[in-house]
Design brief:
The structure is a single chain. With 78 residues, this protein is α+β, with helices and mostly antiparallel strands. It is built from two helices and five strands, in the order βααββββ. The protein has helices at 7-15, 20-28; strands at residues 2-5, 32-35, 41-47, 50-59, 62-72. A hairpin with a 5-residue loop joins strand 2 and strand 3. Pfam families: DUF4258. InterPro entries: DUF4258 (IPR025354).
Length: 78
């Protein structure tokens, strides 16, 4: 499984101060997951104060990171 980033996802890494390694860790070992719009997978992983939310799609054995951003712990629906 190869992880690829869309142009938007790469731009958001810089803009939102997210490390590529944090996104990869979330994709490989999420703490929580749900299904988003159009059947996209939404993955969450705790990084201390906040959770990282990563939206992905799977195509032809590859994982495409659509977007990523930080969310407060209180916004995680359990």
């Amino acid at each position: 499984m190869k992880i690829k980033f869309t142009k938007h996802a790469r731009e958001m890494l810089v803009f939102r101060r997210i490390k590529k390694e944090q996104v990869e860790a979330t994709v490989k070992n999420p703490e929580d997951r749900s299904t988003g719009k159009s059947g996209k997978d939404v993955l969450y992983k705790n990084f201390g104060k906040n959770y990282l939310k990563v939206v992905i799609s799977k195509e032809k054995g590859n994982v495409f990171v659509i977007t990523n951003h930080w969310i407060a712990k209180k916004r995680i629906k359990k």
